[in-house]
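User: Hello, can you help with two protein structures?

Assistant: Certainly.
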Amino acid sequence: MALSPKEKKELQQRFEKQLLPDLDLSFELNGEVYKFNFDKNESGDYIDSFTQAVWGGYQDAEEWEKYGKHQEIELPECPGPVEGWCDCDKCKSMFFHKEKNIYVCLSCHKQTEPFLPIDWNSNDYDWLPYEDEY
C-alpha cells in the first residue's frame, strides 16, 4: 500500500524541513561530492539524483512504518536430506538440519559443508569451507 498524494506531500515537506539545516553541507564519497538540492522537475521528483535517492529511502521508511511493509524473514523449511554429498555448485543456499546435525543444500537436498568468504575486503567472491570441518 502506497502513501496517498496528500500523505506524500506532507511527508516531503517534513523531509525538506528536517534536512534544511544540512542544505549547505556536502558529503564526499569515492571522490565525488554530494549536496542536497531541493529543486524538482514537473513530476515532483528531485532533479538531483542524490537528493532523490535520500528522499526515496525516507519515503520507503515511512511506508514501512505506517503500513508494516517490512518483510518478515521466514526461513525455508529444511528438506529431509538425500543420501550423498552435494555436487550441484549451488551450495550457497543451505540450511542446518538440526536432527541430523548437518548442512543440507536447498537445491539438491544433499549434505553440504558450511562456507565462508575468503576475504571480506577483496573482490574475490569464491567461497571456501571452514578449515576445521575437514
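That covers the first. Now for the second protein you mentioned:
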Amino acid sequence: MADSSNAPLLQSRSSYGSTDKTSTRHDSIDSEAAGEIHPSRDVEDDVLPETSTIGRNLSWQSAYILVISRVVGSGIFATPGTIVQSVGSAGLSLSLWIVGAFIAACGLAVSLEFGCMLPRSGGDKVYLEFAYRRPRLLASTLFAMYAVLLGFTASNCIIFSKYALFALGLEATDVLSKSLAVGLLTFVCITHSVFPKAGVKIQDVLGWIKIGIIVFMILSGFYVVIFRPDTSTAPLTHQLAWEHLWEETSWNWGVIATSLFKVFYSFAGLDNAANVMNEVKQPVRTLRSVALTALGTACGLYMLVNIAYFLVVPIEEIRGSGELIAALFFERLFGEKFGRVVLPTAVALSSVGNVMVVAFAMARMKQEIARQGFLPYSSLLSSSRPFNSPMGGFIIHYIPSFLVMILPPSDSIYSLILDIDGYAAQLIGLAVAIGLVKLRFQRPDLKRPFKAWMPAVSIRIAMSCALIAAPFFRPPDYEGEVFYALYAVFSWVILVGGVGYWYLWTRAVPRWRGTRLQEETCVLEDGTTITKLRYS
C-alpha cells in the first residue's frame, strides 16, 4: 500500500468539488487533474481550483471573447455622443475616456487578485463568501437575492429587437418588439443549454464580427483623412487641433462626474471570465492575461472610435445629436440610405453577442448559487445533465429576464429596474473591495498570484462610494414627479429585506423549532457536489 504521507495534499477528479493537482495551493494551479478525493464544499478550499463536470473546454480565445463582448456592447455606438453633449468639447471627452480606463483598471485589479487567489466559478459570490464568513451565510444569502432577482439580460434583448425591426423597415410595435426580444433570449438559453459547444462557437464568431465592425468604423474615419480629404465628407481634423480641442468645454463638476460614471460603466464586465473559472483552461494564467488584454483592447477601441467620430462628424452636430452620433457617422460616410441599414444591423449583432456572453456567464454563477442549497429543487438546478451544460442555471436566468421584458407597462418602470440593478452592483463592488483589504490584514498567508496595488484598491473603493452617494444629490433643474433617488432607495430596501430574510431562516426558524441549520455535502449522479441545508 502506498504511503499516504507522500501523496499530494489535494488531488482531483473531473467533478465539481474536486481540485486540480496542487501541493502548495497555487504552485501547480494550472496542472492537469490527477487522482481522486472526496469532494469538499468547505469555504477554505475556495483557494483551490475546481474542475466542472462539463470539463475545461474554454480556450484563451473563448475566454477573451467572453470578456470583450461583455465590455464593448451597443453603448459604443451611443455613449461617446452623450458624453460630448454633456461636457461640450472633444478634449474633455477624450480625457474622461482615459481617466475612466484608469479607474476601470483599478477595479479590475481587485477582481484579478480575488480571481487568481480563489479560482472558482461564481466570481463575486465566491469572493464575498470567503471574505465575510460571519455572520454565517449572510453574504451568500444577500448575493443570491441580488443575482436571482436582478441578474438578467433584458436590456440588450430589447435593444436588439428595436434595431433589428428598424433595419428590416418594420414598425416597432410594443408586441412585436417584446416578442422578438423574448425570442432572442429563448434562442440564446436553448442554444447554450442544448448545444453548449455550438453556443460557444456562435458567441466567438459574433464577438469577432463586433470587433471587426468597430475596426471597420475606425479605419473608415482614418481613410477619409488620408485618401479622401477633398470629398464632401472632408475630415474635420481641425476639431482635434489643440486650439479647438477645448472649445465650449463645460467645467461643471456635476456634469463631469456624471459623464465619468458613464465611461466607467462602459468598461463593466472585465471580470466576466471569473464567473466561469471551472471551465477555463489554465484558469489563473488565462484570467490574468485575458482580462488585461481585454482592458487594453477596450481602451484602444473606445479612444480610436471617438477620434473617428470627431474626424467625420462636426462637433456642433455631435452636441445636438447625442446618442445618434454613430448614425451621423455612417450617413456622412456612406449616405443616408446605406447608413440607415448598416448602423442598426451593427447594433443588433452587437446586442446578440452581448446577450450570449452575459447569459453564458450568469448561468454558471446561478448554478453556483443553486449548489449552495438556497433554491428549491437545488439538486435538479445544479446538475449538468442531460446535455452536459448548466441548464438549471439558464432556467434561473431566463425567468427574471423574461418577466422584466413582458411585464413593465412603461419605459420608466423598465429604466427603474435597470437603475436598481446598476446601483446594487455598486454595493456589491464596494463590499468586494473592502473584503480584499480585510483579507490583506487577516490572511497574509494566502497565496496571491496577482496582487493589486493598494492605491488602486483605494480608488475603487472611493469610486464605489461616490456612485453610491451620487443619487441622493438632487440633479440641477430636476422637475420629475417621483423621488430622484428612488432606485437607490429600492436597492437599500432589497438589501435590508435580504438581511431580514437571512435572519428569519438562519436564526428565527431554528430557534422556534429548537433545531440547528446544518450543511451536508452531497454528490449528484453526474459528479456535481452540492450543499444541502436542513434543520436538525
